[in-house]
């Protein structure tokens, strides 16, 4: 029998140089597909080598514009490095400009070249070589431009992007940031790609006018045991000046690339013509995608002419079928899903970089939430990054996608409504191949005033674009009823399936101005507040498991701490804090998985988490979260006893209630006259199943603060040398035995050697950085050169720590001009922009300050009234 063992021990600080193996590099989709080696279709990473200027600029779209004084930037880019607290409208709003020099030649004669942006916040205008090639409104969906006709094939090209994140009521979300529950941030904050094809090619979805078409659309239409029926739609374009006789091969592959099925269609494609094909596939005895076995297949598409491959790409798919069966609940692949689908909401921001989180960070978020007991993540309140959905697919994490919006509909400008419909269409086209998406939030979130006809139109558009089983639109139940949507958020209908979209927070807030709540706790407040918060959340979680199958799941607000537009304080109620460090509640959620729960790539199985921290201010009771049948507790060498979970009625519906050992800890018993002579000062927690120990946790008593130990929090996802990827590195304050000191309050200074840099500096509180619960986090960003990286951390008077790891070469070709990038002005140290709210400006007259403060209070009051109405409605629904 193998016993899982955890020890709160970080290695002796005297040997504080730690070398780690590089994590595995994940693969991410590009513009919704995966590149095929050797294909005429070439995909390049267009993120590195930009220059950037914040503010309005005249003439920057011109090729010969002098941008030598602009700052160097790599994408994803968020305009600025914000301090840890970026809430309350402290981020920049206004125009920002980007320029980049590059070279690009079509792969074959007559080929096409496209620039693809996953997202640019707000209004985007794009020029190439001085010619306007694209505009886009809205900050969360992709757009692309065919730049073939303006491309200089024999030399330098210049691309210019104007990104404006100013408040606008003309496109979703429309709500001014100071009345919004999240922040717009800004910039080209997601990935960009350069895509080159031949003249005959599979179309890019964003450029297609075909309903339920464009690119590749692969869907499972039925499941019978392990047999499936699928339809794969492929749209092909001929941009040459002559007709082409082509054959399109649709090939189903397993995860290792082995061919399982092949369907071929031949056709003549006239010059300038676009055609869509529909291949029917019936794979037998296949491995279906399931939340507990998220196996993924690939559809490889080959376009042939004259015996040659003229275009090829892969689309990753999960062969699965969702059904809503009313009182019987949610069905996956013709079987009840087998569990209450519990999880959390997610916003996308991160300390210092704002929304500009690289693909690795998206993947880590999904992995952390999945390992923390989340079986679903609700998108709040906009489409998440494609890399996040890639991770959800691979990890079996159910999720949602949503039209951008919160508490706002523009009744005065028709263009807002039209753009909302357009967003709905583009939303479905972008995410229709994502296996893990269960619900489509097409209506505007939390807004009863939105027109019935508008909600119904968006619902119909979603079904037009996804005319197959498994499309479920969703909104709060009164809006869903009025708009004719498929599923209800909240609601008590016994025939229509429902989902509790947000729980665990709103009812605890004192008022909408102060925003204090027992469920919102900063990590640095320490053990007792974190424990109080988690026990409160245990009670609210208990109610979720008490519901019938018709309500198939629920999502905590929220999974991760996030910035807010309308309030100066970030939200501090996440399972993870903003640095992605787990709170106690994280382990509470994780403990609800059964001990035999297994998901490939996810840490699971029997677990124990001891909330007690063994400090001079720790409580007498010992609370343990575990999925074991019994817990045996030993303290100071004495066996305290073996107990079953708490019988408190507040937790009776939880699969695994907390374990409560009363009156165990007495600090006065930890005494020794001798130096460093405390004996047996450790708390041992053993988890038992069928009377046998299956997991053991040893927590020694922490003593004298002595040094630092470093660890990289990469979650097994390697660092890629693409100029924007980063990993969090933790500096942990430890005692002379390497035991974590949670009460330590130190200012940790980080330094780095090798092809990397530290994000932020003293002006943003990023370096040096204060410890929280004994931990300080620095973000280490790779350059475009791969190699060995050394990170060191120092505190005056303590032993320093060191960590060595490597960045790996980028998988995709990096499309940028190295000379242009090298000559760009680098950000100076200690001069990062610090945005200060004008309401706090010391140089303003007293009457102006008073007026601004009154205006802020009024804004919060208006938001509060909206939210109070929603809270009351939510309570009625529950």
Characterization of the model:
- This protein is an alpha+beta fold.
- It is about 15% helix and about 35% strand.
- The protein has 9 helices and 50 strands.
- The strands form 11 sheets. Strands 29-28-27-26-33-32-31-30 form an 8-stranded parallel beta sheet. Strands 2, 42, 44, 46, 48 and 49 form a 6-stranded mixed beta sheet that branches.
- A hairpin with a 5-residue loop joins strand 23 and strand 24 (about 330).
- Helix 3 (about 415-430) runs parallel beside helix 4, helix 4 packs across helix 5 (about 475-485) and helix 6 (about 525-545) packs parallel to helix 7.
- The longest helix has about 30 residues, at about 845-875.
- The protein is globular, with a radius of gyration of 27 Å.
What key attributes describe this structure?
878 residues, alpha+beta, eight-stranded parallel β-sheet, six-stranded mixed β-sheet, 14% helix, globular
Overall SS class: alpha+beta
Strand order of the largest sheet: 29-28-27-26-33-32-31-30
**What is the strand content?**
25-35%
- Rounded to an integer, what's the Rg over CA atoms? 27 Å
Mean pLDDT: 90
The largest sheet is: 8 strands, parallel
The count of β-strands is 50
Topology of helices and strands:
Blueprint: E1 4-7, E2 17-19, E3 42-45, E4 50-54, E5 71-73, E6 95-102, E7 112-117, E8 123-128, E9 131-137, E10 143-146, E11 157-164, E12 192-197, E13 200-202, E14 216-224, E15 227-238, E16 244-253, E17 259-269, E18 274-281, E19 289-290, E20 293-294, E21 297-305, E22 308-317, E23 322-324, E24 330-332, E25 335-336, E26 341-346, H1 359-371, E27 376-379, H2 386-395, E28 398-402, H3 414-431, E29 437-441, H4 452-465, E30 474-476, H5 477-483, E31 487-489, E32 498-503, H6 527-545, E33 551-556, H7 584-590, E34 608-610, E35 622-626, E36 630-635, E37 638-643, E38 659-661, E39 682-689, E40 692-700, E41 705-712, E42 719-721, E43 726-735, E44 747-753, E45 756-758, E46 769-770, E47 775-782, E48 787-794, E49 801-809, E50 813-814, H8 818-823, H9 846-877
